[in-house]
Amino acid sequence: MSERNATQKENLATRLEPPPNCRVLMHNDDYTTMEFVVEILRRVFGKSAAEANQIMLLIHTEGEGVCGVYPFDIAETKVLKVHSLARAAGFPLRCSITEV
Fold first, then answer.
1. Is residue 34 part of a domain?
2. Are 25 and 94 in contact (CB under 8 A)?
3. How many domains does one find in the chain?
4. Which residues sit opposite 23 in a β-bridge?
5. pTM for this structure?
6. Which residues lie below 8 Å from residue 63, measured CB to CB, with a gap of 6+?
7. For residue 72, is it within any domain?
8. b/e map 12-43, b = 16+ CB within 10 Å
9. Residues 6+ apart with CB under 8 A from 27
10. Structure confidence by residue, pLDDT tens digits, 3-58
11. What CATH number did the domain enclosing 83 receive?
12. Other residues' Cβ atoms within 10 Å of the Cβ of residue 79
C-alpha cells in the first residue's frame, strides 16, 4: 500500500463518527390499553414480560418511560414500527426520540 493510500484511510477514519445514541420514549395516553403497551414493549423492543410490565407502569404513572437506547437509525425505525402497529390497532400511542 502506498503512503498516499494509507494517509487517505487514516484521514477517512478520523472523520467518521459513530451515530449518536438515542433514547426511545413511550408516552402515556388515556386510550391505549396497558396490555397493548406491554405487547409492544415485548414485540418491538424485546423486553421480557417483567421488564415490559415495569416500563408500562412507569409510563402510566410518570407519563413516559424509556423503551431502550439505540443508534438514531434503529431508534427511528422502532418508533415508526410502534406508530404503525398502534394505528393499525386503533390506538393513539406515541413514542419519541431524544439524544443521549
1. yes
2. no
3. 1
4. 69, 98
5. 0.83
6. 27, 28
7. yes
8. eeeeeeeeeebbbbbebeeebeeebbbebbee
9. 59, 63, 64, 93, 94, 95, 96
10. 666 666 666 656 778 888 999 999 999 999 999 999 999 999 999 999 999 999 99
11. 3.30.1390.10
12. 21
Model pLDDT, residue 58: 98
Neighbours of 56 (CB within 10 A): 24
Domain presence at residue 4? no
Q: What distance in Å separates the CA atoms of residue 47 and residue 42, rounded to the nearest whole number?
A: 5
Report the pLDDT value the prediction gives residue 18, as an integer from 0 to 100: 83
Torsion angle, alpha carbons of 65, 68, 69, 73, to 10: -110
Collect all residues with Cβ–Cβ distance below 8 Å to 48 and sequence separation of at least 6: 42
Q: Is residue 13 part of a domain?
A: no
The whole domain housing 82 covers 19-99
Question: What gap in Å lies between CA 43 and CA 32, rounded to an integer?
Answer: 16
